[in-house]
Write a sequence for this structure.
């Protein structure tokens, strides 16, 4: 199975260097080829497992509790202005 | 007496009897880090000053007669556990300067029990790997032979314990990342039941598989740590309210009369030396009175393929948050393995492929869960080698990701099923450590400790260190 690395990288918002494309194409294809073996397994009447705890509807009180301060929340950003995260414009 | 070679149990006795102080204990471990870390690359951050200050404080508390379970004990934390005010990188350049503003629950609990963190350990970046070579800050070396890998992804944690740099270390096991490095370094590695230990504050890899455990020299020390870290946490909704038993009550009950299953699918295709070592372990358990029974886990062969759909899918979603806006660097800083997994996951979740890959894998996961449930109606626990091969040379598998993935063939199924596994040293092959794992039904950690303890007391491999400590 050939995988369109450029398309996938775009979906995943991953910048790739030109020389990486072929490498990932080969490596990902060989992994997918291995994964193909799953098709042999009979799963017609089998339910899906998405989690293994069997816990359901774990909720907590809808109440405000102390949280990070504004300074703490901003402590690791490289781009801030007036106590806010500064991001690129979305609309021109 | 050399303080680096002590178990936590011995160190607690020594501290209480005033044979040595916490300051001496912490200093000895820091000295070992200073001496060996340059070549082993086990630690990414060492916090000597903070650790020494806490040791002095611990000594005062000990003088006052305080007796927290880990008071004054030096430990290490895998660099994927958030530590407030202490750099936490997940061994990725994306987070090379990230300083968390809060602690992981496990860190809170260990520190409240008196443990002193000496540093943060190196690992495969984002916990993606089986060898410790995927770190963006250079590979971790195996102290038993520095040309070989220590196993991964919790590589530095395993190395720190075997080489006397820390008395215990935290780890995460998503597909074998505690059990494999434990087996390659002659340490005891616990992967608890999924949800037994809170994931809060641990950088997420694959959220339905991530299990939070630790490395120690002995099984008894492992039980001591789990008593502290396990239990419901309101900050992690996947931690069930199951009570945390006193694991020491049954620890020395022995294995007489226990039925231990050997899955026939797990012993196919083992390296011959591993096979011999494993048969030796079975003999020991029989001698101790266990009944060894061949069982079948028929869906085993699909484990790795199933895991390499579910895990990268969750990885691609968890790593989507790293955009370099609120913290860290942008996405061009991801290393090769992270990019591979993000793309693999993005692909299998993309339109037109979801049903064929992700949905199919979730069904296979059910088959694997059922396999174990059936098995545990026939046997009390399961034993198998941790790795189908002995430790390999650094560089041997780095250009062949699929080959690297297959190293986890005997460990990933426990993660898919959410059951616990305990890796215990089982000897040496050409001077390199190997191990066996005991698997049990969900929340059967007490039973696994009991079997592991009996095996360990008979074999005493833990008394060997990679060099004179």
């Amino acid at each position: 199975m050939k995988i369109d690395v450029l398309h996938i990288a775009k979906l995943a918002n991953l910048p790739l260097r030109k020389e990486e494309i072929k490498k990932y194409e080969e490596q990902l294809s060989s992994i997918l080829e291995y994964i193909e073996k799953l098709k042999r397994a009979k799963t017609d009447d089998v339910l899906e497992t998405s989690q293994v705890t069997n816990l359901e509807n774990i909720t907590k009180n809808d109440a405000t509790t102390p949280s990070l301060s504004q300074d703490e929340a901003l402590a690791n950003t490289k781009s801030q202005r007036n106590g806010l995260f500064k991001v690129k414009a979305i609309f021109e | 007496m050399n303080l680096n070679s002590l178990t936590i149990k011995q160190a607690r006795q020594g501290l209480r009897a005033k044979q040595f102080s916490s300051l001496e204990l912490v200093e000895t471990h820091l000295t070992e880090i200073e001496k060996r870390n340059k070549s082993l690359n086990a630690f990414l951050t060492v916090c000597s000053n903070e650790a020494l200050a806490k040791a002095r404080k611990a000594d005062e508390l000990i003088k006052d007669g305080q007796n927290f379970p880990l008071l004054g004990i030096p430990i290490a934390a895998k660099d994927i556990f958030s530590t407030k005010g202490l750099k936490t990188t997940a061994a990725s350049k994306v987070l090379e300067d990230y300083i968390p503003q809060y602690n992981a629950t496990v860190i809170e609990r260990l520190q409240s029990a008196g443990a002193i963190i000496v540093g943060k350990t190196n690992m495969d970046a984002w916990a993606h790997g089986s060898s410790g070579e995927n770190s963006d800050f250079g590979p971790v070396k195996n102290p038993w032979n520095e040309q070989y890998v220590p196993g991964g992804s919790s590589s530095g944690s395993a190395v720190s314990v075997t080489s006397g740099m820390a008395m215990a270390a935290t780890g995460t096991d998503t597909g074998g990342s505690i059990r494999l490095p434990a087996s390659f370094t002659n340490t005891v590695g616990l992967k608890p039941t999924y949800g037994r230990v809170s994931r809060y504050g641990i950088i997420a890899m694959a959220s339905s598989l991530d299990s939070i455990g630790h490395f120690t020299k002995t099984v008894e020390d492992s039980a001591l740590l789990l008593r502290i870290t396990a239990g419901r946490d309101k900050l992690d909704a996947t931690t069930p309210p199951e009570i945390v038993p006193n694991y020491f009550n049954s620890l020395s009950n022995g294995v007489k009369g226990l039925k231990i299953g050997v899955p026939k699918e797990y012993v196919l295709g083992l390296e011959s030396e591993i096979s011999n070592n494993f048969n030796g372990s079975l003999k020991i358990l029989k001698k101790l009175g266990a009944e060894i029974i061949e069982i079948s886990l028929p869906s085993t062969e699909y484990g790795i393929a199933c895991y390499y759909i579910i895990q990268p899918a969750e990885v691609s979603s968890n790593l989507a948050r790293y955009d370099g806006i609120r913290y860290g660097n942008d996405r061009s800083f991801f290393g090769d393995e992270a990019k591979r997994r993000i793309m693999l996951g993005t692909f299998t979740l993309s339109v037109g492929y979801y049903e064929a890959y992700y949905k199919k894998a979730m069904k296979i996961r059910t088959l694997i869960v059922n396999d174990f449930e059936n098995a545990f109606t026939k046997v009390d626990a399961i034993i198998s080698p941790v790795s189908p091969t002995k430790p390999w040379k650094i560089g041997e598998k780095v250009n062949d990701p699929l080959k690297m993935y297959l190293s986890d063939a005997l460990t990933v199924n426990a993660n898919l099923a959410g059951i616990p596994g305990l890796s215990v040293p089982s000897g040496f092959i050409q001077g390199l450590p190997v191990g066996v794992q005991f698997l049990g039904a969900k929340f059967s950690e007490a039973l696994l400790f009991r079997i592991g303890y009996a095996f360990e007391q008979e074999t005493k491999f833990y008394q060997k260190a990679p060099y004179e400590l």
Summary: The mean pLDDT of chain B is 97.
